[in-house]
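Intended use. Records like the one below are meant for learning the mapping from a protein sequence to its folded structure. Do not use them to infer anything beyond what is encoded.
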Amino acid sequence: MFELNFSQRNSETILFIDIEKSSLDNVYSVFPINYKVHTAQTLDAAWRILRTKKIDCIFCNLKLSSGQNGIEFLKLCKSNGINIPFILIANESEKIKSVYARQNGATDVLQKPLNPEHIGLNLAKYFSSAG
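Structure written out for the chain above:
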């Protein structure tokens, strides 16, 4: 079992990508407070953050705007040698795409709505397996 000590500040930084402004506004209620979180509403903004900041883990909604999706961003990251935990967030109706995402290198696929306790435990697992 993985445990987090929430009283200590972690050095890990998360990039959270979602087109829904409400999800971005509530991101700090989902992730433990001891992680630094950058948010992006578009893949262009996410790519800029990824290229200029130290990012240790990516959470990306499967469905994005303008025909873009999280799997495309996953492939872009992998093709550019970015090998950090990449977690896709999907709706229940997107299960088939979840299998495809794992086949393309997603670390995990989580279902909406995100559960803060579940996220905390998964972050410990993602970082321990990446290190």
